[in-house]
Design goal:
The chain is α+β, with helices and mostly antiparallel strands. The protein has one domain. 28% of the residues lie in helices and 15% in strands. It contains 2 helices and 2 strands, in the order αβαβ. A two-stranded parallel ribbon has the order 1-2. The radius of gyration is 14 Å and the shape is globular. It comes from Aegilops tauschii subsp. strangulata (Goatgrass). This is FBD domain-containing protein.
Length: 80
């Protein structure tokens, strides 16, 4: 649930948000995505033009693959 709360911080407060992409492990159905929309309160979003995209298993990481913050890309810290 902490991931939802973290994402909600951006959903409800970021007025210039353009895109928020969520990676989902395994199979996710329309019902799952609808539930996430409710949990994230997307109807109350601060940025009316924001897009919320759910993708599957795009970049799987194991614990040993996680880098220290100083090793992350400056251009895109979420790059795989």
């Amino acid at each position: 649930m902490s991931e939802v709360n973290f994402a909600m911080l951006f959903v409800l407060n970021a007025k210039m948000l353009e895109l928020l992409q969520f990676e989902v492990q395994g199979w996710c159905c329309e019902k799952f995505i609808e539930r996430q929309h409710r949990l994230l309160q997307l109807g109350n979003r601060a940025s009316r033009g924001a897009q919320f995209v759910f993708t599957k298993d795009k970049c799987l990481r194991k614990l040993e693959d996680i880098k220290h913050v100083r090793d992350l890309s400056v251009a895109d810290p979420f790059e795989c």
